Amino acid sequence: MADPVKFTIDGHELEAAPGTLVVEAAKRAGIEIPTFCYYEGYSLQAACRMCLVEVEKMPKMQVACTLPVGPGMVIKTNTPQVVAARKSTLEFLLTNHPLDCPVCDKGGECELQDMVFRYGAAESRFTDTKVHVDEQQWSPVVFYDGPRCILCFRCVRVCNEGMGVGALGIINRGVHSLIAPNDGDHLECDECGMCIDICPVGALTSGAYRYKTRPWEMEHVGTICTHCSNGCKTTLGVRNDEIIRGNNRDRSGINGEFLCIKGRYAFDFTNHPERLQSPMINEGGKLEPVSWSKAIAYVAKKFQEVKDRAGKFGVIGSTRTTNEENYYLQKFARLGIGTNNIDHHRTGDVSSLLDALSGHSDALATSDDFYNRKAVLIVGADLSVQQPFLAFQVRANTRHHGAHVYVVTPGAVREDQIATSAYRSTPGQELHALAQMKEALAAEPELVIAFDDSIKGDKVRELVAFGDSLGIPVRYCCLVDYSNSRGAMDMGLLPDLLPGYKPAESPGMTAAEMTAAIDLDVLWVVGSNPLEFAKREWRKTFIVVQEMFLTETAKLADVVLPAASAYEKNGTVTNVCGEVQKLKKALNTMGTKPDLEIMGLIGREMGLAKLLGPWFADQVFEEIRANVHGYNVPLPVIATGGAAQSMPVNGPIGRLRHADSIKSAHDNLFTSGNLGKYSKILNSVLEKRRDPAGQAQEMEHFNP
Ligand code: SF4
Ligand code: SF4
Ligand code: SF4
Ligand code: FES
Q1: Which of 105, 207, 334, 387 has a CA 20 to 30 Å removed from the CA of 501?
Q2: 154 lines ligand 2 (CB under 6 A)
Q3: Integer distance in angstroms from the first to the last C-alpha of the chain?
Q4: 389-426, pLDDT tens digit by residue?
Q5: Which atom of ligand 4 is nearest to the CA of 46?
Q6: What digits encode the pLDDT tens for the residues 10-51?
Q7: Is-contact 277 271, C-beta < 8 A?
């Protein structure tokens, strides 16, 4: 490594690696140089002139955000000239600014407001009429208020470089310059809101949040997004038991500040008008509201009756319920009612991967690996659409580290733009395509292979054999769909595998077998919609459904129990890379209960309380830590909002039955399984895409 460069800032003798920017060197030494356009991780812009500093022997003031430190450099950040320059820059930025802070969404969190407060002048010398342009709505979620824009280009860069979308540009010149969308007057983009989040002022605002509250009126609760399997941390702004905003500005999770549209906006299902808020029992063909005590007693009595006569139970769990709930459900099924007929909607073949990796060490990829490893191979998946955060990591890896990306997918994907090689494969032929890039892959120093449900069963073993044949360190990631798809498997929501992938003595029925069976006495469905397309009579089967909405399955139920969402409970979830994170309860929805409590109450009513143990999330997690392989993770990491890597099983697991039934739902950026149907924001974007002509009408919907 090259020798560090020595220099001084404000009299402090410092050193830093060659190439370090003055602005970064100052930050590390605790010296603030104010910036607007500079943003760590994105290309340099030098547009705002807020960061001017004096450097001895340089005739003019220098832009600290593009100037690398040099040997012997003497930098001054607080001279009268620097102070005057900052004041002038701010006065200039406010020339046409409307100063509508009292009604601006950004008020209280605005970098311009803060800078003017700290460095600006109390009065302006400009008396001319300000240039005005009307506010524009570019999409259901993105609004642009030109006069507030300080032309820092952060939005343009995050969209181009961070998202790989390039939906924003600039039009006009001088004071008439404006940011403009890529498609005439509207956006064709991911609707991720990253541009809104990164905007230092209130020029870009969100359709979901604007004019609803002031930031200090909300409680800010850090929890985990309940949509895809990537496990992004989202900080929910909650007021009066309503989620108003989602963001991750404190960059505290694995995802830094990244969120896609689902994590940022699709929390609105929580207060959807069709949300179930009372238990219901089917009386005479109609679901009628009843009290919780009546519903629980009714379910427990029926379960007991069927158990006593050794009847047949089927249990289908969820890919979004917590690890604690999944663990408790399988314990209830196996010990409480004595069945291995338990399953969930499986979307990736994790168990075959763990089995194939038996004897390998350090072979499962973390979400950090997608950013740090030298090469990434994507097999099958449209990563940007199906695994948005992992795709964001890969893009950042290519920008910051020059990582090589290889793609084998059936169709064109966004990763093609950054790929060293991209192959189009026909379904079933993915491994043949890999053979063609073997030489290039073997020349990489290390590799992450991420694959979707096109690789399952024996093909997973072939993929691992291929990875072994490369002769380089390879880490794998089996891509799954939902926020706790991985946890559902780890916790044993499988007919032939117990928690921690221990084989069950006698395999039970799969979800498909259960929904096809005509002799089930009880079907207990927790947070899933397996009967969505069922076209048959269910008269013989007593169906109990724990749900947030009256899904197709809930409509067929004998008893429906209204469940709390992931944002309304505590517990843990495990993401696609096996990272365990904590959900933190952000709000209450009247009438609902967390699934864990519902199961606990049914168990208690059946006299199983002692056998099943307490139904409090922390206590169940203690049991998981003690009993489930790989989950003895450090509690302080999780308790403080961090992600703890679970340790994979390292030994043969055996064959998972019916690996061929594994099927991803292939959700896109604007769908999220059953849950997505109840998000007004996601539907508004989908609606706009289906019917561009109806866009104005639909977007009107979100006007305050
Ligand atoms: S919402 Fe996301 S994709 Fe759309 S313009 Fe903004 S940053 Fe780009
Ligand atoms: S809209 Fe915001 S982020 Fe974009 S250039 Fe203007 S001030 Fe900067
Ligand atoms: S990438 Fe996945 S986990 Fe992250 S915000 Fe989007 S849907 Fe949520
Ligand atoms: S922060 Fe340096 S020019 Fe904008």
Answers
A1: 387
A2: yes
A3: 56
A4: 999 999 999 999 999 999 999 999 999 999 999 999 99
A5: 3
A6: 999 999 999 999 999 999 999 999 999 999 999 999 999 999
A7: no
